[in-house]
Amino acid sequence: MTVFLVLGIAGLVVLALSLVAGDLFDGAFQALEADWISTAAIGGFVSAFGFGGAASDGAGLPLPVSLAIGTGAGVVVAWFAWWLTRLVKDGPSDGTVSITDSVGQVARVITDIPGDGYGVVRVVVGGHTLRFNASAHQPIAAGTEVNVTGVLSPTAVSVTEVWQP
Question: What is the CATH number of domain 99-161?
Fold first, then answer.
């Protein structure tokens, strides 16, 4: 039982190290071209194997049964750790919102847009509220919904009034 507990604690230490410096250790496994191996999966397997084996050994089960239960628990936890780390690492991340992301979006005119100058529009892109100078071919009053049709400069867009039947 002591060996199982030591393995369980060692697995927890490996899991803690994978949280702190997991990318450093995972780089060694990439050199082996084994993408399915990660420090989180190894730590999860070793700790579940140790604690599962200790629990079954403490219940008075024979050693081969304790080894089988520890191995089964280790495989399940290792798979879950591998799946979870891949989900986090390969998941999408939102980049910085730029003015080009506003093209095609519906905006609201904040200050009147004259036919020969600029007004201001507010557009929501990916949950971010952005304000841009806006130009249009015809005057548009404040409060009107418009479509952003193009980028004129890093701070200005062109717009057209939203057609409403």
Answer: 2.40.50.140
